[in-house]
Amino acid sequence: ARHLLGIEPLAPAEITAILDLAETYVDLNRRTVKHSNALEGMTQINMFFENSTRTQSSFELAGKRLGADVMNMSMQTSSVKKGETLIDTALTLNAMHPDLLVVRHPQSGAVDLLAQKVNCAVLNAGDGRHEHPTQALLDALTIRRTKGRLHRLTVAICGDIAHSRVARSNLILLVKMENRVRLVGPATLMPSGVGELGCEVYEDMREGLKGADVVMMLRLQKERMDGGFIPSEREYYHRWGLDAEKLALAHPDAIVMHPGPMNRGVEIDGTIADDINRSVIQDQVEMGVAVRMACMDLLARNLRAQRGAMASQAF
Ligand code: CP
């Protein structure tokens, strides 16, 4: 493929190939030298129209560790503030001949639209409520490494499902890989029609957690709620916050995940988040660099192959 826009178009074998390549980067990644020349001579531009800590920094590190020239566009100080559109901004950057564009945008579908206008590889770093493919891939790698497999597991994704691109990408990936997925949360934060995506839906968190192998917690995305139902944090924590009593209902070896940023005491008890025997939250961050290295490495190989084919046609 030319771009990585979502999990939806990926076949299970392609997901496995990305995870296998990422695995080869996990150990290399713990050393501080430049590890590979997979992106040597290539330029990577990161355009984040929405705040990020983990995704932006790990894409930057991943590009540098693969030998790319990496530029972070500061969207706060760019001409977007003077009214320049997303497409005009992208076309301007495209004229500087980047090889890889990493884009996060608050509108669902904005990254797909941009990918149609540029002639480099585009990686979706999160678009609205639509998809966050590298997050689902790094979560999959974390699960596979911790549980020893990525199939026939029961995964409970809990919280604000309606506004979460992380939930959507994870649901699509986990169902493709033949896992049992439960979506758990208030009915008001559950999108309609999710049952058709091959998952089970629970409003009662205690029921939803019973026997789960993986418990994935999500943040309440108040910035996307535009006046809809927002439960009080106190009530929310009581009914849908992960505490020791609710976690005890999951499988005794269940792992706890959270994509971050985390609101301690709202969707998760801080002690559980910090419990290294249950929580793999820091592993998720670590896998993020390896997975992003693998995604960019594969797209760069495709780019080089396309350019090679075009050059040979020209003769
Ligand atoms: N998980 C995630 O996307 O985190 P950031 O918003 O910090 O990038």
TrEMBL record:
User: What lineage is this protein's organism placed in?
Assistant: Bacteria, Pseudomonadati, Pseudomonadota, Alphaproteobacteria, Rhodobacterales
Quick one: which residues bind L-aspartate?
K82, R165, R219
Q: Name one GO molecular function term.
A: aspartate carbamoyltransferase activity
Q: What PANTHER family does the annotation carry?
A: ASPARTATE CARBAMOYLTRANSFERASE, ORNITHINE CARBAMOYLTRANSFERASE, MITOCHONDRIAL
Signal sequence region: none
What is the protein's name according to its record? Aspartate carbamoyltransferase
SUBUNIT field = Heterododecamer (2C3:3R2) of six catalytic PyrB chains organized as two trimers (C3), and six regulatory PyrI chains organized as three dimers (R2).
Q: What is its EC number?
A: 2.1.3.2
Q: Which gene encodes it?
A: pyrB
* Known pathway: Pyrimidine metabolism; UMP biosynthesis via de novo pathway; (S)-dihydroorotate from bicarbonate: step 2/3
Q: Which reaction does it catalyse?
A: carbamoyl phosphate + L-aspartate = N-carbamoyl-L-aspartate + phosphate + H(+)
- Give the superkingdom in one word: Bacteria
Q: Which NCBIfam families match?
A: asp_carb_tr, PRK00856.1
Q: Where is the Aspartate/ornithine carbamoyltransferase Asp/Orn-binding domain?
A: 153-298
For this chain, the family text in UniProt reads:
Belongs to the aspartate/ornithine carbamoyltransferase superfamily. ATCase family.
Which Gene Ontology biological process is one annotated for this entry? amino acid metabolic process
Q: Where does carbamoyl phosphate bind?
A: R54, T55, R104, H132, Q135, G260, P261
Extract the coiled-coil ranges from the record. none
What is its biological role?
Catalyzes the condensation of carbamoyl phosphate and aspartate to form carbamoyl aspartate and inorganic phosphate, the committed step in the de novo pyrimidine nucleotide biosynthesis pathway. Reversibly catalyzes the transfer of the carbamoyl group from carbamoyl phosphate (CP) to the N(epsilon) atom of ornithine (ORN) to produce L-citrulline.
Q: A single Pfam family, by name?
A: OTCace
User: Which species is this UniProt entry from?
Assistant: Paracoccus sulfuroxidans
